[in-house]
Amino acid sequence: MGRRALLKGSLCLGVCWELEPELAFGQDDPSTVRPKEGDLLVDVADASNKPLTPDDVPAGGKQMFAWAMDPADRTVRSGSRLNRLLLVRLDAEKLSPETRSRAADGVVAYTAICTHTGCEVVDWLADDQLLYCPCHFSKFDPKDGGRVVDGAAPRRCPLYRSPSSKGSSLSRSPLHRGSGLRRRSEDSG
Asked: Both 19 and 47 in a single domain?
């Protein structure tokens, strides 16, 4: 392949990406599209896809995993493991100020992907209340914005915004590089 062909191909990809990012990456399957503002959160293990509420997340217990679901057509965005979220419900008084500002009744949401090499953060160290990635032994503190406590991870586990207010369902909305968890009633005013 010549230099000119490579440059033309790059230019076409760039234009396509700008105009329609889903097409540039071959995401024509709605379940692989990244979660969008207003998507509801559903339990990975629940085939009924009932939207989660803060009460559905066990207090002080092991994290649970969630997918985003489009509320209009009920498409669950489970086609990419990168869309997987983990939810933990902790004592709100023990959360750092930044984490507390992003929590909904003590529920915090993090990406389930480790910042080291992209493994999944699947374990919970109950005694220390830490999230744990078994691939390279990274530990993250969910009470302090996903701060790395130990291990090879170079950065915090990304925390999603979770402003607390009255409502029933948890929903996801974009914030900077991440997305957030918030009460469904905020969308209606």
From this structure: no
Quick check: helix, strand or coil at residue 13?
A: helix
> 4 lies in which domain range?
1-28
What SS3 class is residue 168?
coil
pTM over 0.85: no
C-alpha distance from residue 25 to each of 84, 179, 187 (Å): 19, 20, 29
Number of compact structural domains in the chain: 2
Instruction: Give the model confidence (pLDDT) of 134-161 as tens digits.
Output: 998 999 999 999 999 999 999 988 877 6
- Residue corresponding to tokens 């170079």: 154
Contact 51, 40 (CB under 8 A): yes
Q: Which two tokens stand for residue 47?
A: 């085939």
Sequence length of the chain is 189
Residues 173, 140 share a domain: yes
pLDDT at site 35: 76
Report the C-alpha dihedral over residues 99, 103, 105, 111, rounded to 10 degrees. Answer: -110
| Residues 21 and 113 grouped into a single domain | no
